[in-house]
């Protein structure tokens, strides 16, 4: 499938309840196994008491991260690093990212930009919440599939990181070429349709619409490999739509002791 072909229609995804997955509801867990084995991703319905405060943390983070991204380049460049999993990442097409290491969050060494310091507690809480959520889903998923448990020690988060992002690119600009995520699982909060996924059946690119602001959970290459390809890491790309994009995303990686 040529990467330049336009998306045709929207991709329909399973909606799964976080509360029911957290409670290990058999039907919901089996739905998760099917979704991540077939499409490789699903919408996570966060309605319920478990995610209440964590969802409230997102609004101030989005507001303050935009203040940072609107700073002069010389201010933002202070947070660039030589490590692609951490720090400020600019581009020449209007996309900017800030990757915040989970390991630094745990160690108390995270150096947040000045604009984000008023919401440092919200940032740390969001990192902790999503990290724990994905680890729990991964453990449930592998147990349900009869697979050896993955190496997901929360005190050894490896390369795991929280991404804050913004895009002011022109409509139709390809922001990220077709790829699979590298880690174990990814969770993405987004407010504008921008993710296009290659449909495994039709081999057409399909747009992933916003679904009541539910986040997306998707398989990445580490978990596909650990499952002997029983799980499917979907090929996807990012294309800018009509409006600016605000993004909060978390990439979960295995602990270093098991990464090969």
Fold and architecture overview:
- This protein has helices at 18-22, 26-38, 52-69, 73-76, 102-107, 120-144, 221-226, and strands at 15-17, 41-45, 87-90, 95-101, 161-167, 174-179, 185-190, 195-198, 205-207, 216-219, 236-239, 245-252.
- The chain has one domain (15-258): Jelly Rolls (Sandwich).
- The longest helix has 25 residues, at 120-144.
- With 260 residues, the chain is an alpha+beta fold.
- The mean pLDDT is 93.
- The strands form two sheets. The chain has an eight-stranded mixed sheet.
Summary keywords:
globular; Jelly Rolls; 260 residues; 23% strand; 7 helices; eight-stranded mixed beta sheet; 12 strands; single chain; alpha+beta; four-stranded antiparallel beta sheet
Give a short synopsis of this structure.
This protein has helices at residues 18-22, 26-38, 52-69, 73-76, 102-107, 120-144, 221-226, and strands at 15-17, 41-45, 87-90, 95-101, 161-167, 174-179, 185-190, 195-198, 205-207, 216-219, 236-239, 245-252. It has 260 residues and is an alpha+beta fold. It comes from Lasiosphaeria hispida.
List the helices and strands and how they pair.
Elements: E1 15-17, H1 18-22, H2 26-38, E2 41-45, H3 52-69, H4 73-76, E3 87-90, E4 95-101, H5 102-107, H6 120-144, E5 161-167, E6 174-179, E7 185-190, E8 195-198, E9 205-207, E10 216-219, H7 221-226, E11 236-239, E12 245-252
Parallel strand pairs: 1-2
Antiparallel strand pairs: 2-10, 3-4, 4-5, 5-12, 6-11, 7-10, 7-12, 8-9, 8-11
Helix pairs in contact: 3-6
């Amino acid at each position: 499938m040529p990467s330049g072909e336009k998306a045709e229609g929207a991709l329909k995804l399973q909606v799964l309840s976080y509360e029911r997955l957290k409670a290990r509801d058999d039907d919901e867990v089996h739905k998760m196994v099917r979704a991540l084995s077939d499409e490789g991703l699903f919408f996570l319905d966060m309605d319920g008491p478990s995610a209440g405060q964590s969802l409230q943390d997102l609004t101030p983070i989005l507001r303050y991260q935009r203040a940072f991204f609107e700073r002069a380049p010389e201010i933002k460049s202070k947070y660039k690093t030589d490590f692609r999993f951490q720090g400020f990442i600019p581009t020449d097409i209007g996309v900017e990212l800030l990757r915040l290491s989970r390991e630094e969050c745990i160690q108390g060494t995270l150096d947040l930009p000045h604009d984000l310091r008023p919401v440092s507690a919200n940032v740390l809480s969001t990192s902790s919440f999503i990290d724990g959520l994905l680890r729990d889903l991964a453990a449930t998923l592998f147990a349900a599939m009869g697979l050896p448990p993955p190496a997901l020690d929360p005190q050894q988060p490896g390369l795991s990181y929280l991404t804050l992002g913004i895009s002011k690119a022109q409509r139709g600009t390809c922001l990220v070429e077709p790829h699979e995520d590298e880690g174990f699982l990814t969770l993405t909060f987004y407010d504008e349709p921008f993710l296009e996924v290659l449909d495994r059946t039709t081999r057409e690119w399909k747009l992933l619409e916003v679904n009541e602001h539910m986040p997306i959970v998707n398989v990445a290459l580490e978990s596909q490999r650990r499952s002997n390809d029983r799980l499917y890491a979907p090929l996807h790309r990012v294309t800018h739509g009509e409006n600016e994009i605000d993004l909060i995303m978390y990439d979960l990686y295995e602990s270093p002791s098991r990464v090969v």
